[in-house]
Write a structure and sequence with these properties.
- Strand 10 and strand 11 (327-328) form a beta hairpin.
- This protein starts with 8 loop residues before the first helix and ends in a 13-residue tail after the last helix.
- Among the domains are: 170-281, Butyryl-CoA Dehydrogenase, subunit A, domain 2 (Beta Barrel); 452-564, Acyl-CoA dehydrogenase, C-terminal domain (Four Helix Bundle (Hemerythrin (Met), subunit A)), CATH 1.20.120.470.
- 58% of the residues lie in helices and 11% in strands.
- The chain is globular, with a radius of gyration of 24 Å.
- The protein is of the alpha+beta class.
- Helix 19 packs antiparallel against helix 20 (537-559).
């Protein structure tokens, strides 16, 4: 029986990464709940076995239910009936099956009926679901909102709303407005605080319009709103929890999209909609949404890897079946090179995805501990380290994985030739679904703005040096020497850009520098994967040699450019 977890050996490989021992120990607080819940693990091995079994269930559901429904969901899509979004039949079936299996809210603590899973296996589940249907992964993946409620809301709100996720509650991040786009600090939605705030009920009333809201008819929504009159910046924004059962929101329309058509994207009109404050006023964007964005970037990273995996498999299947000039086209160098490169790139972004997920896991666990007790000096140091790494790696992941995902989908369709342009093959849908990944949750251009801090602060270089110092076997040293050479070239480029002392010049080359760092990082991750399992050696070699060539090209362009060259590109 087909299973989307068991047929992807990379997943179990990353699930058993050495750092998982620390992550599991922190998440389970040294397994203190083993005697409280009969499904709580007794030790590390028991925890990994539990994750493995649950992922196997998700893999089976993805292969046997979600994937077969994907085409009909894409054709049918959601409908708006009497101010309510009605999912496609297949979407309803997908959600019902996952809910009955107890897989909604899987990262939540057991006291809220969750499975208390770390981020890593949760992200793996998201990749598996995305491979089956990228559109449905948006609906399922927005359970991330539960983590934000758990992290920042009052105990009263946690107790009221978090147990609902296990029962199948859907969620939405309600951030974007018609004129704000990605510039969230210009959000204008206003809670009528001065006139409508009821201190006895602790209720705010929201008025305004939100647009491009994924799953906008969700049961539970986190709404970014301007709560402080007279403010125009991020300090006037707060985060609110809106319960659909309380009414007050009109769904103006469902957008007609290019891809991920099963996932409803809506425009919402709030009219005296009652909502509850999450955390403290004025911290909505500065603290809460910024934390939420790390999870959102991880989510798109998982979605991108899932789409890339699906595209690779469709290309390989077609190439093995399609006969041209008397033999399968997989036997032609132009085809098998293309497909092998697709597979290697997918492995590269998968390694980056789970490396980043481990950073997020660690800093979030330390944050939870800090609420209960004072962290030891070593713990505080580690918490800060992984928080810094998460802040620069999540935008790097989102940038690279989404761009690779689009390229891989493009190449897969190319392998299919004219047949891929027709709706007879899944790649046509996969290709359309891939396109959004480099747009929503912050475009690739905005991810560069966030990730370039890893260049300017030396954060990427510091982590690269740590990778460089790792022990490797002698037969892999030739690949490390290439990565060391790439690092020296990267340092030279960054130094040359900084020497110009021109912000516009640095911005102009930001993406090239970030991508150079990303190539080195993914090269090291594949190299270190090879140390654990030599089956990854060929992929590491292919990726590193090609990345070396790509970085040399970028370095040559940057080192031979000048501030005055920017005038060639400006529009006056």
């Amino acid at each position: 029986m087909e299973n989307f977890y068991r047929d992807t050996r990379d997943l179990h490989f990353h699930l058993t990464h050495p750092l998982m021992k620390k992550i599991v120990a922190l998440k389970e607080e040294d397994f203190k709940e083993a005697g409280v819940y009969d499904y709580a693990p007794l030790d590390y091995e028991d925890a990994i076995d539990s994750y493995d079994k649950v992922l196997e269930i998700i893999g089976e559901i993805a292969a046997q239910v979600i994937a077969p429904n994907a085409e009909s969901v894409d054709q049918e899509g959601p409908r708006l009936i009497n101010n309510e979004v009605v999912y496609a039949r297949g979407t309803r079936e997908n959600h019902e099956v996952l809910t009955k299996a107890g897989l909604i809210g899987m990262s939540l603590p057991r006291k809220y009926d969750g499975l208390n899973f770390p981020i890593v296996p949760y992200v793996m589940a998201a990749e598996i679901v995305s491979r089956a249907d990228a559109g449905f992964s948006n609906i399922w993946g927005l359970q991330d909102c539960a983590e934000t409620i758990r992290e920042f809301a009052s105990e009263e709100l946690k107790n009221e709303f978090l147990p609902r996720f296990h029962k199948g509650a859907t969620a939405a991040m309600v951030l974007t407005e018609p004129d704000a786009g990605s510039d969230l600090q210009s959000v204008q939605l206003r809670g009528s605080i001065s006139a409508s705030y009821d201190p006895q009920k602790d209720i705010f009333y929201l008025n305004g319009v939100k647009r491009f809201i994924t799953n906008g008819d969700a049961d539970i929504s986190l709404v970014l709103a301007r709560s402080e009159e007279g403010t125009t910046d991020a300090r006037g924004l707060s985060l609110f929890l809106y319960d659909r059962a309380d009414k007050g929101v009109t769904i103006r329309r469902i957008e007609n999209k290019l891809g991920i058509k099963g996932s409803p994207t809506t425009e919402l009109v709030f009219k005296n909609a009652p909502a509850k404050l999450v955390g403290d006023r004025r911290m909505g964007l500065i603290k809460y949404v910024m934390s939420l964005m790390n999870s959102a970037r991880l989510g798109v990273g998982a979605q991108s890897v899932g789409i890339a995996e699906a595209a690779c498999r469709e290309a390989l299947k077609y190439a093995c079946e399609r006969i041209q000039f008397g033999k399968p086209i997989i036997e032609f160098p132009a085809v098998y090179e293309l497909i092998r490169n697709m597979q290697v790139k997918t492995q590269a972004i998968r390694s980056l995805l789970y490396e980043t997920a481990r950073y997020v896991d660690l800093y979030k666990n330390y944050n939870h501990f800090s609420e209960e007790r004072k962290l030891e000096p070593e713990e505080r140091q580690e918490s800060k380290k992984y928080q810094r790494l998460a802040d620069i790696f999540t935008p790097l992941l989102k940038l690279v994985s989404s761009e690779y995902c689009n390229r891989i989908a493009y190449d897969s369709l190319q392998v299919h030739g004219g047949a891929g342009f027709m709706k007879d093959f899944p790649i046509e849908r996969i290709y359309r679904d891939a396109r959004i990944t480099s747009i929503y949750e912050g475009t690739s251009q905005l991810q560069v703005v966030a990730a370039v801090r890893g260049v300017s602060t030396g954060g990427f270089l510091e982590r690269i040096k740590e990778f460089e110092a790792e022990r490797i076997t002698p037969d892999l040293d030739y690949l490390r020497r290439i990565l060391v050479e790439m690092t020296e070239e990267y340092e030279k480029v960054v130094g040359a850009v900084e020497k110009e002392a021109d912000n516009e010049f640095a911005d102009f080359h930001a993406r090239r520098m970030v991508e150079m760092a990303g190539n080195i990082i993914m090269g090291y991750l594949l190299l270190l994967d090879s140390v654990r399992d030599m089956d990854y050696k060929t992929s590491a070699e292919i990726f590193i040699i090609q990345a070396h060539s790509e970085n040399l090209q970028k370095a040559n362009y940057i080192l031979n450019s000048d501030v005055k060259d920017l005038g060639n590109f400006r529009y006056v």
